[in-house]
Please model this.
Amino acid sequence: MFFEISKVLGWPVFPSNAVALLCVSGVVLWLVGWRRSGRALAICGVLALLLFGYGPAGNVLMLGLSERFPAWHADGRDPDGIIVLGGAIEAARAQARNETELNSAAERVLAMLQLARRFPKARIIYSGGSANLFPPYVAEAPFVERLLEEFGVARDRIVIEGASRTTFENATRVRDLVQPQPGQHWLLVTSAWHMPRSIGVFRTVGFDVEAYPVDWRTRGWRDAFKPFPRLSMGLAQSDTAMHEWAGLIGYWWSGRIDELLPGPRPAARRDQS
Model:
């Protein structure tokens, strides 16, 4: 039920949807005679369109998420396993075309292949079902399994989880599948903007992992005041960031994460967990 509610309530959270609602509501009020209210809503809609479309609001929202965890650097220990969260495969299109179709989070898959080659003894776990509220329900994981085998990764290294629909389900199902042991070293690969919520959930379910963020979407804080050259670019950035902020709030409110914006733990504390 949490999945369905989050999908329904999350629709107006996207700035592009909110802008459309404001503009349409303004027009409707104007047509039924509430011209002052209609004009005010329409003006708010246009201003929001400019702010989130051309302005740097999307970058600021994104940077608050993606800069939380730094890029991963090896500490001399090879990982026992590499966990990759779904969200990079366009599963329905991949099924229709019988090809591996990647989206804007493709760096997750690229990092998975690079790490699988760099650490040949590590297990590779890919967790990704279908996040669609309505059909078609096509899981990502089987396409990744085929891709790993095509790239020469041994089948006994691969663990595929294709039933999860949310980040919380990713964490609980992967934990139950791999049964992590004390002292093991696990990397978690996902988009930088998705890492705070992902790390927070894995901590909540008792699975200590180390962040391996990818798919940054900005060059860093120097992009905080950078406008977008096209309306669609700014809206896409704003939609992704605002949806993730809403996810953090929802997960924190429901107890799926213990803090609103999880961040790195001190090294000493992490080693003791």
